[in-house]
Amino acid sequence: MMSFVALAGPIARVLGLEPWQVGGAMTASGIAWMIMARFWGGLSDRRGARRLTA
What is the pLDDT of residues 8-17, one digit of tens each? Predict the structure, then answer.
C-alpha cells in the first residue's frame, strides 16, 4: 500500500486523472482498510492467518 503512494502521481498523469480523484481513491481505501482491519483480524485469530492468505 505504501509503495503505491509514490506511484500514484505518475499513474494519475498517465490515466488523465485529477489530483482530487487520486486523493479521494486513496482516502477511501484507507478508510476501508481501517474499518475492515478489525473484521480480518478477528477472522485471522479464529481461522489462522495461513488459511486466509492461501
Answer: 889 999 999 9
